[in-house]
Specification:
The chain is an alpha/beta fold and 293 residues long. It is 40% helix and 22% strand. β6 and β7 form a beta hairpin.
């Protein structure tokens, strides 16, 4: 029988964390809960204690993926759920995820239907598609929830906002890439699962409300642009067969060079600068640093 550990990387508002923890507890299933407090906030420690969660406090802000890796090593469950601190699971969310993995022995990960917290009639993510240049595209994003999104089944990836994985398979794949401080680590991980011959399952019967970007801020901030762009480049370079690398790199670089020009023309220098730095850092990490493949 599988046991479940819910891992919540946290940074920022302790009230947001408290709401997330309360939702996990009220949703049932009695999972073990681990909080990784990247902000070293005493209020977050109090929230974790109040809801019976184990607290891990790293010396520095590890970001999303490395924080999840840290907690995964400490977790007792055979199934791990990575959950954003701005996510609010709905009652009964865990059994459908567990059952989906049990029904599909070759599945490495399963994810719920994500609905926007500010308007739960609208889809945030119903599974996703991995694009050729390494980014992810959420299925149904911005569309009204409908029976079309009640069809569960395989997909390319599920969002790291709420993702269940087999602990053993997670470590066999190498966990989240520690170089991905924020964003696209879910796409990269699921692509690596696929390369192992595993499947990813979207599970519509499991529902989670998601505030999205409550920690990093709304809109296309320079920080988001930098990490999305750099990490999608690394994702493509790491996971494509070598024969696909030239067109994938050309597509990614060409597309983003056009975006830099567009940002410059429309007087958005901070965004243009973030894109330029992301491309430079991506190339440096992929080809001048430690080998990625």
């Amino acid at each position: 029988m599988h046991t479940v550990s819910v891992i919540i990387p946290h940074y920022g508002d302790a009230a947001r964390l408290s709401s997330c923890l309360a939702a996990v507890r009220s949703a049932g299933g009695s999972p073990e809960i681990l909080v990784v407090d990247n902000s070293r906030n005493p209020a977050a420690a109090r929230a974790a204690k109040a809801h019976g969660a184990r607290l891990l406090v790293p010396e520095t802000n590890l970001g999303y993926g490395p924080a999840c890796n840290l907690a995964a090593k400490e977790a007792n469950g055979t199934l791990l759920v990575f959950l954003n601190n701005d996510a609010l699971p709905r009652p009964g969310w865990l059994p459908p995820l567990v059952q989906a993995l049990a029904r599909n022995p070759n599945a490495a990960a399963a994810g719920p239907k994500l609905l926007f917290a500010h308007d739960p009639s609208v889809i945030n993510s119903a599974g996703g598609e991995i694009l050729y240049h390494g980014a992810g595209k959420d299925r149904g994003r911005g569309k009204a929830d409908s029976p079309a999104f009640d069809i569960s089944g395989p997909c390319d990836y599920v969002s790291g906002a709420a993702m269940m994985v087999h602990k053993e398979t997670f470590f066999a794949a190498g966990g989240f890439d520690p170089r991905f401080f924020l964003y696209n680590e879910d796409v990269d991980l699921c692509w690596r699962f696929a390369r192992m011959g595993k499947t990813i399952q979207y599970v519509s019967a499991s529902v989670v409300f998601h505030a999205e970007s409550a920690t990093t801020g709304k809109g296309a901030t320079p920080q988001k642009i930098f990490f999305h762009t750099k990490n999608s480049f690394l994702t493509a370079v790491k996971n494509h067969p070598k024969r696909h690398l030239p067109p994938a790199i050309a597509l990614h670089s060409g597309y983003n060079l056009l975006k830099i020009m567009a940002f410059a023309i429309t007087a958005r220098p901070a965004r243009a600068s973030a894109l330029a730095r992301a491309l430079a850092e991506g190339w440096k990490e992929a080809f001048l640093g430690e080998r990625l493949f």
